[in-house]
Design a protein that fits this description.
It is built from nine helices and two strands, in the order αββαααααααα. It is mostly helical. Strand 1 and strand 2 form a beta hairpin.
Length: 227
């Protein structure tokens, strides 16, 4: 039983071809393309308004140099939200429950922010490794600690997203299994369990959006330190 609970996180394949590539490419097909007309429908209007609000909120603490990342960060945010939301549908696979995918997104973007900081302002970038006013005996220790914390950042990004989505999917499957088993024996308890399952599903919808926002927000904070 415990093995079957984790089977949902195995990457599916068909004829030896991993289907995770289709799961990653499919969300982009679902977005409506804005037409050339002045008046759009409500869906496109809502989509445009949401993206504009998010972009303005995300780029508010960044200077003009960081605004070049607007398209990349906004696209990543929308991409993660749609993948996380589609993963809540029955009989679907969530690519963001794979640590390899999340690390593949987090590590290059984090490294790009570090390289930008080292290239544009190396003194300030290296100054983050040593807080101002540090006593002389603590300087070597703090430099080591700050260096380790710097290299842990991409791992924290990937693990946070993977752990939150994996835990949510496991809870949903556990409670759904309990409701299914209790239905013929204790209908009243099964109804209460199904109610908890419904509320948990609503919570997971919020978690799917919040985790995508937190992922991109932390990347923007790393970028803010280096631009």
């Amino acid at each position: 039983m415990m093995t079957s609970f984790f089977d949902q996180f195995a990457s599916p394949s068909f004829l030896g071809v991993p289907l995770i590539s289709i799961a990653i490419a499919l969300p982009w097909v679902l977005f409506p393309t804005p037409p050339a007309r002045w008046v759009n429908n409500r869906l496109i209007t809502l989509q445009t308004w949401s993206i504009n609000r998010f972009t303005n909120q995300l780029l508010l603490p960044l200077n003009v140099g960081g605004h070049k990342w607007a398209l990349l960060l906004t696209s990543l945010m929308v991409f993660l939200i749609v993948i996380n939301m589609l993963g809540l549908l029955p009989y679907t696979f969530t690519p963001t429950t794979q640590l390899s995918l999340n690390m593949g997104l987090a590590a290059p973007l984090w490294l790009a922010t570090v390289i930008i900081g080292m290239r544009n302002q190396p003194t300030v970038a290296l100054g983050h490794l040593l807080p101002e006013g540090t006593p002389l005996p603590l300087i070597p220790v703090l430099i080591i600690i700050e260096t380790i914390s710097l290299f842990i950042r991409p791992l924290a990004l990937g693990v946070r997203l993977t752990a939150n989505l994996t835990a949510g999917h496991l809870l949903i499957q556990l409670i759904a299994t309990a409701a299914f088993v209790l239905a013929p024996m204790m209908p009243t308890v099964a109804i209460l369990t199904a109610t908890v399952l419904f509320l948990l599903t609503l919570l997971e919808v919020a978690v799917a959006m919040i985790q995508a926002y937190v992922f991109v927000l932390l990347l923007s904070l790393y970028l803010q330190e280096n631009v």
